[in-house]
Amino acid sequence: MRALETIAHTIRVGKVHPTIVINTLIEIENEGGATALRQVERHLNRTEEALRDRAHPHSGLARAWLDATRAYLIAHAERRQAV
């Protein structure tokens, strides 16, 4: 999944533009729907914990990705209920 490569690259670099975040989450949703988003959320949760445990300087960015993914999932659920 190209989206995971994008996420990993931004964490390595230590910065990401908000447009990249939303476009990546849209790409994940388009490729695999809510199931893919939940898989990425689980992956990011494990990644963030591992980086935090190692005191990695970019663990905060991994957390930001995780938070953004969760917010996107909530918005996705709300959109489905509104239909």
Write a brief structural summary.
With 83 residues, the chain is mostly helical. It has one domain (2-82). It is built from three helices and no strands.
Would you write up a description of this structure?
The structure is a single chain. By secondary structure, the chain is an all-alpha fold. It has one domain. 87% of the residues lie in helices and 0% in strands. The protein has 3 helices and no strands. Helix 1 (2-13) crosses helix 2 and helix 2 (18-53) packs across helix 3. The longest helix is centred in the middle third of the chain and has 36 residues, at 18-53.
- For the secondary structure, the number of strands is 0
Number of helices: 3
Helix content: over 70%
Q: Give the quaternary arrangement of the chains.
A: single chain
> How many separate structural domains?
1
Parts with pLDDT < 50 across at least 5 consecutive residues:
none
SSE order, one letter for each helix or strand: HHH
Rg, alpha carbons: 13 Å
**Mean pLDDT rating:** 93
N-to-C CA distance: 29 Å
Quickly give the structural class: mainly alpha
Major sheet summary line = none
Strand content range: under 5%
What overall form do the CA principal axes indicate?
globular
Core attributes:
83 residues; mainly alpha; globular
Topology of this protein?
Blueprint: H1 2-13, H2 18-53, H3 59-82
Helix pairs in contact: 1-2, 2-3
